[in-house]
UniProtKB/TrEMBL annotation:
This is Helix-turn-helix domain-containing protein. It comes from Bacteroides intestinalis. GO terms for molecular function: DNA-binding transcription factor activity; sequence-specific DNA binding. Coiled coil: none annotated. PROSITE patterns: HTH_ARAC_FAMILY_2 (PS01124), ZINC_FINGER_C2H2_1 (PS00028).
Amino acid sequence: MQTYSACGAVISCQQCPKAVANAIIYASHSRGFHLPAQKCEENIMIFLLEGEVLVNSQEYAGTVLHAGEFILQAIGSKYEILALTDVECVCYRFNQPELFCEERYKYIMKSVTPPLIFTPLKITNELNFFLSASKAYLVEEKICRELLSLKRKELAFILGQYYSDYDLSMLVHSLSRYTSSFEYFVLQNHMKVKTVEELAQLGGYTTTTFRRIFNSVFHKPVYEWMMEKRKESIAYELRYTEATISEICYKYGFESLPHFSNYCKKYFGSSPRGLRSVQSVATEETQTFCEEVG
């Protein structure tokens, strides 16, 4: 169905190229859904609207996140999630927090000591109103990059106005832990390039120097690491996202669906559709197990 988009063209909003890489998403999962332990390649804030999930990370070890609470996992951190009930959430993925006051960020970093044990923050009434409105757009796939940019600015305003410096210290100190590191640079930028040389140039390194530093930090050759991350990302998107196979195919630079299918058969032992089927069966088995032990 064709509609007038925010940019004035008569197109389907879901197919608009400006909708690529949306930073705010809505997700729902059944009880038993399991997100295996993985490193964040960007910062992610998880706002739980319904249900309960078990979060396991350095910051939130064995923490149950309840409806009406939210957490932040910073880029480079490692986390794992298990849905204890049917759940709904809105997630905000970002590299740099949009429109957040830099002076306040610096003040919190310098003067506010975060709690020794991190706990989820409560969703205020103002934030809940924002999330409910965002969900209404996202559930119906009313996707527009300009709109979501405004929503990100609104989110930053709400966090700044309705949360104390002490509350925000858990977010600010988590973010700062990773942002000055070489690892942060690699995780933030490796998907933007196709070659090791391009990644080194982006960071202002010679290729030789970049390879040397990379080996000392990640303990493996950079090209091998980039190929592994590409495979992990493809497998993750096929198993745990609702992106179409075509969208995943072209996002990762494959020339055609047959080429993508051959790649999956070579590295995963199954076609893209087969990988999705395996995940569906695994989810059902996990849910059955949870019901049995619950």
